[in-house]
Amino acid sequence: MPNDTKYTKILDALQTLLEAKDIRNISVSEIARAADMGKGSLYYYFPSKEAILEALVERDYAQPLHTAKNLASRTDIPPFTRMAMIFQACRNSSAQFRARRNAPASASAPEQAFIHQKYLTYLIMELKPVLTDIIRQGIDTGEIHFDRPAALAEIVLVVLAVKLDNALVPSTPEETEDTILGLISLLEKGTENPAGSLNFLRAI
Fold first, then answer.
1. 3-state secondary structure at position 199
2. Core-most of 66, 169, 202, 204, by most CB within 10 Å?
3. Where does the pLDDT of residue 194 fall: very low under 50, low under 70, confident under 90, or very high at 90 and above?
4. How far, rounded to the nearest angstrom, does the alpha carbon of residue 95 sit from its chain's CA centroid?
5. What is the structure's pLDDT at 8?
6. What is the mean pLDDT of the segment spanning 168-190?
7. In 10 A of CB 84, how many CB atoms?
8. Which phi-psi region, left, alpha or beta, contains residue 196 (left: φ > 0; alpha: ψ -120 to 50)?
9. Could you tell me the pTM of the whole model?
10. Res. 188: pLDDT tops 90
11. 167: Cβ–Cβ under 8 A, 6 or more apart, which residues?
């Protein structure tokens, strides 16, 4: 059975190395040394550097995804309120990630974009079925009027994840606010909710 302590040490090692070096310039041997183990031992847990990075991404978003999955079953909370709560949790996690990557010796812009793409792809793919379920619940109760719940979930996720992350498409606070307001307006019209009824989503 895998040793959880060693597994965690490998992820911690890569996370520390990423604060000073490009992912492209980090070798599996270097990760193993930083984790204080042999290269062969590392391969017992991960088949490649890419797999370690993916596991690190998964760990960083474990808490917001746990929050999201719990909220999927909370039918006592309105669907759009649950969506806002999920995105607030994800925004907090993304902010922590950006803080780590903003160290003076941090990686180059292209490498940061590559890492962010990994995070955003994981976030969108993992949250899409959860949000689809929440939207479908809203449709069943008559709170949301829309016939493509999966498509709506993906649209909301892509727009919010990219804008709130503010790395792939850097924006001023005013530009981000304008995009969020535009999305809220589209959601209100597309789901047949009264204008202004979803303004609380601006809190995310």
1. helix
2. 204
3. confident
4. 10
5. 94
6. 84
7. 18
8. left
9. 0.75
10. no
11. 98, 112, 113, 116
**Distances in Å between the alpha carbon of 142 and those of 56, 69, 78, 128, 149?**
39, 22, 11, 21, 13
C-alpha torsion 92→97→103→107, nearest 10: -150
CB 89 within 8 A of CB 68: yes
pLDDT digits (tens, 9 = 90+) for 108-128: 566 666 777 777 788 888 889
Higher pLDDT, 166 or 78: 78
List all residues 6 or more positions away from 165 whose beta carbon is below 8 Å from its beta carbon. Answer: 94, 98, 116, 119, 120
pLDDT of residue 140: 93
What average pLDDT does the segment 9-35 reach?
Answer: 90
**pLDDT number for residue 94:** 66
Give 31-39 contacts, CB < 8 A, sequence gap 24+. Answer: 35/6, 35/9, 35/10, 36/9, 37/6, 37/9, 37/10
- Tell me how crowded residue 65 is: count the other CB atoms within 10 A of its CB: 20
Where are the strands (E) in the chain, listed by range?
Answer: none
The 10 Å CB-count burial string (b at 16+, else e) for 36-53 is ebeeeebeebbeebeebb
Contact 168, 120 (CB under 8 A): yes
Q: At what angle do helices 109-141 and 79-101 cross, to 10 degrees?
A: 170
